[in-house]
Specification:
The protein has about 80 residues and is an all-alpha fold. It is built from three helices and no strands. The model has no long low-confidence stretch (mean pLDDT about 85).
């Protein structure tokens, strides 16, 4: 016997009631409203934070690679 999952029931419910399934204010409301502007600012802030953090991680990995190669080159010259 088929037992529908919670996700399937939720999807079916949202498909039957499309008014309930509307997206956030950024997609369906006035983009010049206070809520739309605040959501846009929040999204840009989160994207900026993520970019800065990933850039820092990449720079750290690059510095480890550079130091490892320099140490290996120094070891081969001294040997």
């Amino acid at each position: 016997m088929f037992r529908p999952s919670v996700a399937a029931l939720l999807t079916l419910t949202l498909a039957i009631l499309p008014k309930t399934a509307q997206a956030c204010a950024v997609c369906f409301a006035d983009p010049d409203s206070a809520q739309g502007k605040a959501l846009n600012a929040a999204v840009w802030t989160l994207m900026g934070t993520t970019t800065v953090m990933l850039t820092g991680v990449g720079a750290f990995i690059a510095s480890i690679i550079i130091r490892t190669r320099a140490a290996a080159k120094e070891d081969t010259q001294n040997a």
